[in-house]
Amino acid sequence: YTLGVLSNGNSYPETLGVEKYFQFVILAQDIGIEKPDPGIFHLAVEKAGCLPDEFLYVGDSQTDDILGSRRAGVKVAWFNRTNAQLRPEIPCPDYEISGLSMLMEILK
Q1: Is the previous residue joined to 36 through a cis bond, with omega within 30 degrees of 0?
Q2: 8 Å CB contact between 87 and 37
Q3: What is the DSSP string of 60-100?
Q4: Is the dihedral of CA 21, 23, 28, 29 positive or negative?
Q5: What span, in angstroms and rounded, lies between the C-alpha atoms of 77 and 56?
Q6: Separation in Å, CA 87 to CA 28, 34, 90, 92
Q7: How far apart are CA 72 and CA 108, in angstroms?
Q8: Which pTM does this prediction carry?
């Protein structure tokens, strides 16, 4: 799998010592597009070198991540650490996970 970072935040993977795990990094402040704008997700699909239906985005924000992914036409796994309720105006994610280890079941 190709792993990437797509973030509206300003934490660079190298400052956390995890850059070796990711093939690409897209930070909103570097490109001038923020989630939930579909354009930032389209760029991630391009950087990943795959088709939109082969792409899985994992994120914890209902608006930025679920809504943004849906608008871009890519699958999304909602990382719901706090067992929050999905707000009525947010479309259902493809998957809901409470821990990253749950991705193994989705990806096999």
Answers
A1: yes
A2: no
A3: S-IIIIIIHHHHHT-EEEEE-TT-PPPPTTSPPPSEEESSG
A4: positive
A5: 7
A6: 25, 21, 6, 9
A7: 24
A8: 0.93
Mean per-residue pLDDT of the chain? 95
Q: What pLDDT was estimated at residue 108?
A: 87
Length of the chain: 108
Give 43's Cβ-side CA count (13 Å radius): 20
Distance CA 47, CA 21 (A): 15
What is each CA distance from 36 to 6, 20, 65, 100, in whole angstroms? 11, 26, 6, 22
Residue 102: its H or E element: none
